[in-house]
């Protein structure tokens, strides 16, 4: 039975600034139509440019925070999901995130800093919602420290949890915090779950990724290579600290079947078909898939049920602007 605090999530909390833009805007800032990067100096003026010249929406963001909100929404037991990250101290964007987390039922315990304001992420939607380019200005999120995990309140939440989820993006911020959580999970015989998140993380932060990989019980990724089946099987076979669990690897592939390796066996699961005309915005679809998967996984469901949960959440999100959610899930859908 799912209970309060069962899932603990760490990530980079951001406020998403979303807009439909043209190709010229992407070219102006050297951005690709379907990619995720960290902002450089040349991008810092982009956020004001975006707000001034396009019709924008503001929604809570950051990959792991999206996943936390979706999982909490599906589990529907208040404070089943805990979330940590760093925001600005007493700034308007941070207050919005705190309010949204409370409304969503997530137990958010943000570290706060005076050094920078709450982070933002430009979500640049093109091709009628089929593509989105993410450019994240981490700002305050970049100041998260592992000391926060050792504060009495957060340490209590960590010990209460049975499952831990982290996107790959904090590798650029605090890999020591990721290892702290991963080692706790291994030592306590709990499940540690991670997302590769973006290709640049594997390329630029290869050593940090290698350090944490032995602790990963469930790994999410999306297709960027050919011969995905072999890659999934290879990742699943890498050594693990906690030998009681075999590594589960889940690789999404857009509209193609999702690849899952579980106990050394590879299976493929179809996604829910959707007409292009029904797609509003693909932003957050991958985060929602993980949230839907985890909502079932923390309840001890079989992998097939977890995939159905992920498919339901991802299919819902791409039919809405940003990673936004209706008041309640549709309980007539077979995922339930």
From TrEMBL:
Gene Ontology cellular-component terms listed: cytosol; nucleus
Cofactor(s) needed for function: Mg(2+)
Limits of the Carbohydrate kinase PfkB domain: 33-326
Bound cofactor: record note: Binds 3 Mg(2+) ions per subunit.
GO molecular function: adenosine kinase activity; ATP binding
GO BP of this protein: AMP salvage; purine nucleobase metabolic process; purine ribonucleoside salvage
Coiled-coil parts of chain: none
Subunit structure of this chain's protein: Monomer.
Name this protein carries in UniProt: Adenosine kinase
Organism: Dimorphilus gyrociliatus
């Amino acid at each position: 039975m799912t209970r309060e605090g069962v899932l603990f999530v760490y990530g980079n909390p951001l406020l998403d600034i979303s807009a439909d833009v043209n190709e010229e805007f992407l070219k102006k800032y050297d951005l690709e139509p379907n990619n995720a990067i960290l902002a450089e100096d040349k991008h810092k003026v982009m956020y004001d440019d975006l707000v001034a010249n396009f019709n924008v929406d503001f929604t809570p963001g950051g990959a792991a925070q999206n996943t936390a909100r979706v999982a909490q929404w599906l589990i529907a037991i208040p404070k089943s999901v805990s979330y940590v990250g760093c925001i600005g101290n007493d700034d308007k964007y941070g207050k919005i995130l705190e309010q949204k987390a409370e409304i969503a039922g997530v137990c958010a315990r943000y570290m706060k800093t005076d050094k920078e304001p709450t982070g933002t992420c430009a979500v640049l939607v093109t091709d009628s919602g089929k593509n989105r380019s993410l450019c994240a200005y981490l700002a305050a999120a970049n100041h998260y420290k592992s000391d926060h995990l050792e504060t009495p309140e957060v340490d209590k939440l960590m010990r209460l949890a049975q499952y831990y989820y982290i996107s790959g993006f904090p590798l650029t911020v605090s890999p020591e915090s990721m290892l702290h959580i991963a080692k706790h999970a291994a030592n306590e015989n709990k499940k540690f779950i991670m997302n590769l998140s973006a290709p640049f993380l594997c390329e630029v932060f290869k050593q940090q990724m290698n350090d944490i990989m032995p602790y990963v019980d469930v790994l999410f990724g999306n297709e960027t290579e050919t011969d995905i089946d072999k890659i999934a099987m290879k990742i699943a076979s890498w050594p693990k600290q906690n030998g009681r669990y075999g590594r589960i690897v889940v690789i999404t592939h857009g509209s193609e079947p999702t690849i899952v390796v579980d106990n050394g066996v590879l299976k493929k699961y179809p996604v829910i078909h959707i007409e292009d005309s029904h797609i509003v915005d693909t932003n957050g679809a991958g985060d929602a898939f993980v949230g839907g998967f985890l909502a079932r996984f923390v309840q001890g469901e079989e992998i097939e049920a977890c995939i159905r949960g992920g498919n339901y959440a991802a299919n819902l999100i791409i039919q809405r602007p940003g990673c936004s959610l209706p008041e309640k899930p549709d309980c007539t859908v077979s995922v339930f």
